[in-house]
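ugh ok fine here u go
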Amino acid sequence: MFDSPVSASAYEVLGVAADADDEVLRRAYRLRLRQAHPDTGGDAAVFVQVQQAWELVGTPEARASYDRGRGASAPEWAGPRAASPRADTRPRARTYGQPGGWRRERYLTLVREWAGRGVDLPDPYDPALVRRAPHELRRLLADALAEEATARVVADLGMGYTVWHDVDASRDADADEKIDHVVLGPSGLYAVLSEDFGGPVGFRRGEIVGPHVEGAPVTQLVNRMRLLARAAGVRFSGALVVLPDGDILDAITQLGKVRGTPVAVVSRSALGTVLRQGVAGAREIGGTELFDVRTRLQQRVRHV
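structure:
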């Protein structure tokens, strides 16, 4: 939660400066805890976030360790994790496209423009540089990381699944519209959005809401899914929005149907289970239909 390019630091969650003394920090924690407590009208997800922040900086030892870590490099931001030797040799899901590739390219282009035209940055993923960058640039990197994390989960679903990443869902050639992941398996065909809003979110009338949530991400996902469905001649079983663990109170939140499509918001650690078991109200796909849908998508899918 605190290592995302867009997440608040433990000090920001508690509402104090990083150099606040221990007594100021303790008073701030107690105040934020009262404000966020669900029994007094606060947000349960924020309440958990405040507790997690205090665990990181609430003692001199923890605070010293946290302060050292904040200045450390974050090599995992630099690209998809290299594949390590796998003791498990079972076949993995069939995958196409580069997860997070489009957003990484956009981030690298824009961060170099922001830092100075023509500047060859030694490390465009340096945490100190990233933290100073405008929020929209940090969001690009955070979402690229979120897509890569989702890709690692779905790759482990097994040979019964096929996954397309960075799927073009534009209405015209000039638009930059995509579906992060399209996942096909026995439990159904799902359009998947990987997001990182930088903190806890809530829900209202079938949509995700929060201080850093722009627009209507669920509605946008469903609209793009419907466009691809018409173009490929397939029927989607549902739509999923994947968020970092800790950003939603429940691991699985069913939003009901949006424009006739079952939608669920899931934490990253629960994604594999959801894709294996399916979403409530979603139609399973099996037998020859699975092969037909895969063929239709393979003929139609284009990657951004």
